[in-house]
Every structure is written in C-alpha cells, then in structure tokens.
Structure of Cyclohex-1-ene-1-carbonyl-CoA dehydrogenase:
Amino acid sequence: MNFQLTEEHLAVQEAAREFAKTELLPGVIERDSEAKFPKEQVQKMGELGFMGMMVDPAYNGGGMDTISYVLAMEELSKIDASASVSMSVNNSLVCWGLEKYGTEAQKEKYLKRLASGEVIGAFCLSEPEAGSDATSQRTEAKRDGEFYILNGTKNWITNGSTASVYLVIAQTDASKGHKGISCFIVEKGWEGFVIGKKEDKLGIRGSDTHSLMFTDVKVPAENRIGDEGFGFTYAMETLNGGRIGIAAQALGIAAGAYELALAYSKERKAFGKPISQHQAIQFKLADMATQIEAARMLVYKAAWLKDQGQDYAHASAMAKLYASEVAMNVTVEAVQVHGGYGYVKEYHVERLMRDAKITQIYEGTSEIQRIVISRGVLK
Ligand code: CAA
C-alpha cells in the first residue's frame, strides 16, 4: 500500500494546474454565459498531450497511466468542466476503445489524429428513447455489400459539432437484442449526416452538446470496430473507463469549489472575525474536505485497478457514484459559505454547482451506477 504519487504524477498534476490557471480561467465565466465551446483552449490541450494521455506514443499518445489522467482531469475540472468533459470523452470514450479494439488501419487513419488532439472525437450511444436503457437502440446499420447504411438519431452528444470523428453505436440485427449491436466510425461531412440542435444546458454550458441525425449514411464496412454484434459490450467496456474520467471530473469540481470556499472563509469577516473562525463554517469545511478525500481515494483506486489490468467496472461505478454526490454536496455548501456572493457569477461557485449536476447524469445516472455496483456485490 503506497499513497505517494510519483515524481511523474506530480509533474503532470502541476502542468495541468498551471494550464488551468493560465489558459482556462481567463474567460471561463463568459464562455459559460455565452455557451461558447473553449475551442482554442481544447486545441492547446491537444498540443500539450492532454487529449490522448494514455494512448501508446506509437499512435501519438502520451503513453501515461490512468492515475496521470485522473490527476489532470481533476485539475482542469477545478476551473473549467466544459473543457474537461471534452478531454474525458476524447481520452476515455474515443481513443481507449479505438486503441484496444480498432484495426491497424483504423488506428493509423483515426487514432493518431485523435490522440494528438489534431481532431476530436465523440461517442454516440444515447438516443431519444435509449438513455439508461442502452440496449434499446433504434439507430440501425444495414449491411449493403462493402458498406452499412446508417439511419437514426443520437441525443446529448458531447463534442457534437466540434468533433470530426464519431463512434456510433447501432443495431445491426434487431432479432439478437444486445448481441445485434455494433459500433462504427463515422466522419463529419459524410452525406446524410446532419448535426442537429445544440442543447441549452443548466451547466457545462461551454461544452458542445448536440443531437445528430443519420439518413442513409454510407459507412464502409472497414469502419466497424470489432465483430458485428460486439457493439454493446464495446460500449459497456468503454463506459467502465469513461466513468473513471467523469468521477475525476466530479472530484475536480468539488475540490475547486472547496478551495474557493476555504480561501473566501479566511478573507470574509463577520461578527468581528474571519468567518473561518466561526464553528458553523469550520464544520462545513471539515465535512467538505473529508468527503473530497474519500472521493479522491475511490477515484485513484479505480484508476489504479485499471492500470494493474484488474477488473475495474465496479470500482469505476463506485467512484463515479460517490464523487458525483460529493460534487453536488460540496458545491452547494461552497455557495452557502460565500453567502450572497456565492449566488453571483463572479465568484465561480454557482457555476461549479450547476456543472456538478451533470456528473450524476452522464455516462450513466447515479441509479445506473447503483445497478452496476449491486450486480458486483451480489455476484
Ligand atoms: N462492463 C462490461 N460488460 C457489461 C457491463 C459492464 N459494466 N454491463 C453489462 N455488460 C454486458 C453484460 O455482461 C452482457 O453481456 P453478455 O450478454 O455477453 O453476458 C451485456 O452487456 C448485456 O448486459 P445486461 O443484460 O446487464 O444489460 P442491461 O440491459 O440489463 O443493462 C446497463 C445494463 C448497466 C443498465 C447498461 O444498459 C448501462 O450501462 N446503461 C447506461 C448507459 C450509459 O451509461 N449511457 C451514457 C451515455 S454516454 C455519455 O454520457 C457520454 C457523454 O457524452 C459524456
């Protein structure tokens, strides 16, 4: 048992912290207000190696471990969760599966550009009637010679209009249930592929969330990832890792709000002394710090299990379930510590509170995490 981060981990953490302060913090309030995607910032994240952190350097990745990835996610999410979700989707939901299950040609053509951040990717599972119930896919891909003809609609797709490469889950044989689902690589600009409306969201407002429509889109058969029928397992395995990234995002949102509340409590005076000297505030800070530390341990443990090649499905669900609840609790308390100032945009904590909510919803709601965990417990 060793709770010490290595020199390399500390360097990654420091680089991410510095980047978040110098590149993400300026303009974060305006991007939130205007629902503006942090395009230049995400491009710089690619240049610094944040968009393909765990990918083999042979495919332009950083060759780092999952612990490094969660450390970077935490630091970036303290400041800008809209930028960090783009990073998380690209790393965990797009690059990971392409590297693990893609053909050499797919890796050459797509993974190299995704891992370097030259382009970004999107993962398209959710549909208007298939969110939590992911097996109920309506999007279908019918084989036609050397192509599949893709038809359907996807909803709530992160990086929806900014991505260039889309991993699309679709039904290839409805009679086989979840064993008749496959995954395809689709490029932006292909005939019949239309990017639909942008969602106007409560939080992560800078993140680019869209519906997508596919009408008779011709997808080359060579763009299927893995065998026909492997798509559902592919999506589930992908989400096992994705949930570690979102858990780290939730941890970062909580830690960011806590750091702001701590600093504020030392400056703000009431009844003749800094509010940090009042027990009502001290108890809040103590609870926040304890919850964050417990969430951090679950996040690191899930990342460590993945790095060790051990089963991490349940650990990642636990980390996401707990860290997202902590993000919600802590951000609400951070607003409370700030009093009236916490309710206005300038002090950042109201944004973090709004951003926290999505971590209990995407990549599986808290209820889905409980299903995954209870299945592990009852096994
Ligand atoms: N890991 C690996 N395989 C898994 C798995 C997991 N966590 N969960 C299920 N599977 C496999 C099962 O082993 C089974 O395979 P076999 O038939 O070969 O044994 C198969 O998948 C079907 O499993 P179930 O019968 O358990 O399926 P189910 O219909 O009961 O539901 C579920 C499973 C866990 C509820 C699943 O549907 C689920 O995770 N739903 C939530 C989907 C989700 O997280 N969506 C988020 C969208 S992505 C997103 O938000 C991205 C973004 O933009 C930020």
